């Protein structure tokens, strides 16, 4: 099935088209909103990198982190303050923004500010969350739960379609492999692509070792370049990567965020591999090699 | 001894549409099998929103699929039924004769024929057993 193109961005921000033969899009930022100044600094710095690479991008940062391993971990700045900060990022940097939300009651406010609303992986099959996301009328960034098969994501897609949603981005963020470990099954991209919606690779959470540090998650960020290249070669429409200026001091996911000083290196390669893949498809034909009817 | 009735037409014997298992092309494979199980016919029709026949799926197709398809059963169940359906299937018009219908069935080695209008809209299903009974005047 051909992959649709979705458009993220309303009003004055730079709109981002994801899907089809569009250039690889980037979704990134600090895992959690840490404050207004920090958000604006990160958005400006990421924006400069994306401008240099000519990569369309969406700023991602969350106002509430409801899936932390410990009650003592940073939970977020909250929905009100967080959305004000994201609004400032939109206004001052001109970039579309996305945040997840973990309560249906937060969806409306999130959709009023954010250009795309994100459904957390752990909640990817929760009917009330999916319905609330759809009712914002914004594109829905739907992450595949670590516990979900890629084909079962069709059920979540159909829930969204049932309420009239047709702008969906499906993201793989790794799949549980025993306890405290994940693997990436790159078959997930073409399988989720069978829905007709664009697919995205979340490299940050793919290299996460869930709750491997007792009451927090570890991660192996040394694999970010390898997995990003592999995903781009396999076939994705967007790359998701959490970025921080000082990873050890990041308030959320300190073990997985990419140091921004490496972002250009990672993004540039992913962009080039994506472009090469499109050229190869043009030259050699589509990926369809299974037996015809 | 009854005599063969050569002037009978499909419309006289076909199952009406409301008796035929029909699903949409977006119906999940598992749900389509459930629908097939409700009617002991061994065939299900897939139509678009305008009622046009887009494909069929039969018990025989299921047997062949189980042999050839290598994906996990859980993944197969999530597929759209249209993915595995026979798109270029034999059909017959409602004003065709039963003799013509039987000839098609014999040639194709099938015993169900979807009945369609000239523009492909599904009208019903012709099943071999009632046809035989009618032709023999039983």
Give a structural overview.
The complex is a heterodimer of chains A (293) and B (138). Chain A is of the alpha/beta class and 293 residues long. Chain A has a single domain, classed as Alpha-Beta Barrel (TIM Barrel), CATH 3.20.20. Chain A contains nine helices and 15 strands. Chain A has helices spanning 36-53, 79-93, 107-113, 127-135, 153-162, 188-193, 203-206, 224-234, 263-284; strands spanning 5-8, 16-19, 25-29, 57-60, 97-100, 116-119, 140-143, 168-172, 175-176, 182-183, 199-202, 208-209, 218-219, 238-244, 258-259. In chain A, strands 3-4-5-6-7-8-11-14 form an eight-stranded parallel β-barrel, surrounded by seven helices. Chain A has a two-stranded antiparallel sheet with strand order 1-2. A two-stranded antiparallel ribbon of chain A has the order 9-10. The two termini of chain A are 15 Å apart. Chain B has one domain: CBS-domain, CATH 3.10.580.10. Chain B contains six helices and six strands, in the order ββαββααααββα. Chain B is elongated and about 50 Å long. Chains A and B meet through loops of A and helix 3 of B.
